[in-house]
Specification:
Two copies of one chain form a homodimer. Chain A is α+β, with helices and mostly antiparallel strands. Chain A folds into two domains: 125 residues, Jelly Rolls (Sandwich), CATH 2.60.120; 92 residues, Winged helix-like DNA-binding domain superfamily/Winged helix DNA-binding domain (Arc Repressor Mutant, subunit A, Orthogonal Bundle). Helices cover 40% and strands 21% of the residues of chain A. In chain A, helix 4 crosses helix 6. The longest helix of chain A has 27 residues. The first copy, chain A, starts with a strand and ends with a helix. The structure holds a DNA duplex.
Chain lengths: 250, 250
DNA sequence: CGGGGAGTTGAATGCAGTCAACAAATGTGG
DNA sequence: CCACATTTGTTGACTGCATTCAACTCCCCG
């Protein structure tokens, strides 16, 4: 595994471009000092590396600083169910109990993580109610997104599902960028889309091309542009404004 | 709406049969006093009553004391997606932020709720780190269950889905009872099962009867018995022990 | 006794999976 | 830099699970 630790000259949290969309967005500068002390290192992984495995008992929690990550369960038949894609700002591998993780995580691109050793982190929680509340708030967001995904997957056909997933990722990724009108890089394969939505790659391909032919999405060599988000939201059977509230922190 | 408030002579939390499987299971007797002060009333609803609606901003959180509740989203086309069934001990309607609820809740049976006004509850959180941690721990459980449901719904056919749902409910309900070998009362219709799993009632019916004919489940007038949980777990494509850990709170 | 909700069954349709083959893009080593 | 292997994407034909539509039964409750 090609992972690398950085323990010195760590970048400052105050100036971090993704802070506002991370766990620490709600924590003011005063308390941020205390939180930053909990961060011991940054860790980098290459695309394709496992960050952790289902069944592991985590020793560190992470804030994803750069890149995309796929969280998934392995099925009995060898298949995968992707639970969600993590983007910069996402909080990974945290468990309040000392139980095993129920899913694995793999880097989709080269990534950087900010690492927080869990033992110290948990003992600090009692002194930092702000942090507890921030974690609750992130958990709530995760639950809401999961229920929203569940609804899309359970009740709709492939076109709706794919439209929903692409629009969600597009909204999240553009919210992290300055120039919100240029295409985003989509570091996932059609197989990943299938594994996230419970569809075969073949059916994903047909439906994906269908969306392209209708002009609802534009995509070549993994660069995705959505010319009219309102149109795609209609196909995805969601209200665009609600989806933005769900996907964009702050 | 036939709801009724009880504000005097509230039953003691210490002796509550469901405490150990509720939010407060992890809170010791000393701190329990402080928590109990936050509970202002018990509220009863009749089967079929709404407890809250999607879009409401909650003023109270609840511990479900008695009965079953269905949590669901309403779809554009008028359909419903049931997100989960709540059983005694479940914590409902809590939001750390002041945002609107993303789903509605309806009583499946006559129910009793313990009510906690949210304003007081939230201000107390800073003084009671145990409570924050308990809430995080409940959130984590909810996320894990949701991901598990998502996996079943996305990747498997109707027989697997129904087997999974019935086994989950059976395990949860029997864990709350003394006599774990007698049938449980299942206060949900085949339509509810369909709305939870994204299937039509007709297909639920056919598949349900299939499970009966195979002897995997026994069910008449809403009394469900599972003669061999290991067999049904195999059909549901889950490991029985893992499912028990996921469904039973200590 | 009549009405409504829930459950049951059959036949026809359609969305998505499976199998098979191939094309394009990407990566690797000689 | 090219040859080859691997991964990813594309297309067609066939199969099957789940939906739709329609009709009907059972049972509880007023």
């Amino acid at each position: 595994m090609a992972r690398k630790f950085i323990t010195q000259d760590l970048p400052k949290c105050e100036n971090c471009a993704i802070r506002k969309s991370s766990l620490f967005g709600e924590i003011d500068t005063f308390h941020l000092d205390k939180v930053r002390e909990l961060r011991t290192s940054q860790i980098t992984f290459n695309a394709g590396d496992y960050i952790y495995h289902e069944g592991d008992i985590p020793t560190r929690a992470y804030t994803l600083h750069q890149g995309w990550v796929s969280l998934f369960k392995t099925l009995e038949d060898g298949g995968r169910q992707i639970l969600r894609f993590a983007l910069p700002g996402d909080f990974l591998s945290y468990k309040s109990s000392n139980r095993a993780l129920d899913h694995s995580a793999i880097a989709l691109t080269d990534i950087t993580l900010c690492a927080f050793p869990l033992d110290r982190f948990k003992t600090k929680l009692a002194d930092l109610p702000e942090l507890s509340i921030a974690i609750s708030s992130v958990s709530e967001m995760t639950i809401q997104r999961c229920y929203s995904t569940l609804t899309t997957i359970a009740s709709h056909n492939a076109e709706v599902k794919i439209a929903y997933l692409l629009l969600s990722l597009y909204i999240r990724e553009t919210s992290l960028k300055q120039n919100q009108s240029e295409p985003i890089h989509l570091p996932i394969t059609q197989e990943d889309i299938g594994d996230a939505l419970g569809l075969t790659t073949i059916h994903v391909n047909r439906t994906f091309k269908g969306l392209q032919n209708k002009g609802l999405i534009e995509c070549n060599n993994r660069n995705l542009h959505i010319p009219d988000q309102t149109n795609l939201a209609e196909v995805a059977k969601v209200n665009l404004e609600s989806l933005k509230k769900l996907m964009v922190v702050v």
